Amino acid sequence: MEDVNDFETCNPAVNNRDSVREEDNGKKQGLSSETSSHRNITDHRCEICGKKYSSEHEVFAHKQIHNRKKSFQCETCGKSFNNNSKLIIHVRSHTGVKPYHCEICGKSFFIKSYLTAHKIIHTGKKPFHCEICGKCFISSSCLTRHKRIHTGEKPFRCEVCGKSFTQNSHLVVHKTTHTEEKPYPCEICGKCFVNSSNLKTHMKIHNRGNPFQCDVCGKSFHDKSNLTTHKRIHSGEKPFPCEICGKAFTQNSHLAIHKRSHTGEKPFYCEICAKSFISNSDLTKHQRLHAGVKPYRCELCGKCFRDNSNLTTHKRIHTGENLHYCEFCGKTFINNSKLVVHIRSHTGEKPYHCDICGKSFLASSYITAHKIIHTGGKPFYCQVCGKSFAYNSNLTRHKQMHVGGNLFFNCET
């Protein structure tokens, strides 16, 4: 399912409209300068989002976007919007209605601006070019971000020290220097640090009983073989290849698990829904879906996760580290797999097909959720009252009835 909740900020076509308005304003300012050269126009900036305007009146009008009350609520999920048109578009994400169709590939969209932006892909054109270096882009928003390299513009300003940045993600990382945020935790004792180098120094405290230390990250091990295996994470060495598909692994045990994907062997079964898995760790993660348990909590924002790897990936939102950018629209993702799925929304590729009704999907998780429609299953149950739901998101909303809206009541800290 495509995310339409933030269509104004993520969609290049919508951003293009904003850019056109800015260009029109620029032309008007230029005309004013020609006719009244003595007039000194000062830039006025919105302190909330950093956007610049030519007068304080325009800034005031713009701020209404931030201050506007969200009185239009979705009856399905409860999300609110500041006008009815946005609510109508959002409701389509629940109903699946996509009234705008591409006549070239047949792909459908929730809103017309998505279709307009999508059509550029078929032309192969990148109509927005940088007049300084000649590099071309698919949308004006991507070009605007690129131009900051040449102009030195840094619209994202720290309200504490005044330092400015070209991207908001860089500002987020910088803000940790002023706050108590320490996004690098020690896996052994839980102590947190503001950067990885401080964490590496701290790890030496725990290494006294583990004489074999990694010179890259500081982690230590009680025997040399474990250190050798660990170092492959940093070197990228994968000496255990699969003779069927060629995929390689750092450990032989990982290869053994992988081979089950070829043989179809899934020896680990869920007692609740009878779903089977190729490894015990996959089964453990799956069982947390039924129980609603999310034991891994982010100390920065309080969000909880079912496994530690998801928490580690999530923390990149706060640190800005290793983000993946979409070359079509500039949207960022915390892992490459989500970027791959997102790019399919631009290309129209839907490689996952339902063998019952033939409907196609962007990602395997989408088709898994879709098949529940055919089976009628409700594998997600509430531990408090026993009520069952078809989707985990519905279970999450239901739980708020028991805990007064606290989404993180299952987090074990």
**Which of globular, elongated, flat, extended, rod-shaped describes the shape?**
globular
Which radius of gyration do the C-alpha atoms yield? 25 Å
Average pLDDT:
75
Number of helices: 16
Largest β sheet strand count, sense and barrel closure = 2 strands, antiparallel
Which architecture of the domain at 7-26 and 42-153 would the CATH scheme give at its second level? 2-Layer Sandwich
Query: Quaternary arrangement of the chains shown?
Result: single chain
- Across the major sheet, the strand order is 1-2
Helix content: 40-55%
**For the terminal residues, how far apart are their CA atoms?**
33 Å
CATH class assignment of the domain at 7-26 and 42-153: Alpha Beta
CATH topology value of the domain at 7-26 and 42-153: Double Stranded RNA Binding Domain
Summing up helix and strand content along with how strands pair, one would put the structural category as: alpha+beta
Question: CATH superfamily membership of the domain at 7-26 and 42-153, which one?
Answer: Classic Zinc Finger
β-strand amount: 5-15%
User: What's the β-strand tally?
Assistant: 26
Spans where pLDDT lies below 50 across 5 or more residues: 1-42, 405-413
